[in-house]
Write a structure and sequence with these properties.
six-stranded antiparallel sheet, mainly beta, Elongation Factor Tu (Ef-tu), domain 3, 12 strands
């Protein structure tokens, strides 16, 4: 069982794939059995009250791989809420606010070109681009305030 923020829990479905890391052994696979319906309040490290719910996970790895995992052990559980291997994604660090939406700078030749984009699902690493960019286009990761439409750039 792991507890997650209620704002994240609403995206989790029974049967979702789970990978457990940082428990003291090799990564373990599992799947969500149930997201419990009742929330509870927990204080964050910053002193903010947060609502959490318990998510029940069935480990699918053989028991001998996780037999030393103790009750109440600290773990990191990665729960897959959406995946599409064919989705067009960019690093979240390449996306920035522009006018009323999002944008990236793509590199065309040696020139930075502003591309307004529409985003779909995202996590801490990547964002799915649903409109405004084509597969194979290179984007500038961590564009600084010195990057602008039409500026010459060099690829590293």
């Amino acid at each position: 069982m792991v507890d997650v923020l209620t704002s994240d829990a609403v995206k989790i479905n029974p049967g979702a794939r789970v990978t457990i890391h940082r428990w003291g052994g090799a990564s373990l696979e599992g799947q969500v059995r149930r997201v419990e319906p009742s929330a509870f309040t927990r204080m964050s490290a910053l002193g903010v009250q947060e609502q959490h719910v318990n998510v029940i996970i069935d480990l699918t790895a053989p028991r001998e791989q996780w037999a030393s995992l103790g009750d109440g052990s600290r773990i990191e559980a990665h729960i897959t809420i959406w995946e599409d291997p064919s989705a067009l994604t960019v690093p979240v660090s390449s996306v920035f606010r522009h006018e009323r939406g999002w944008a990236v700078y793509a590199v065309e030749g040696e020139i930075a070109r502003l591309h307004p984009v529409e985003l779909g699902e995202r996590n801490g690493r990547v964002a799915r681009v649903t409109k405004g960019l084509s597969a194979g286009q290179s984007v500038i990761v961590h564009p600084s305030d010195r990057i602008a439409e039409g500026i010459e750039v060099s690829v590293r």
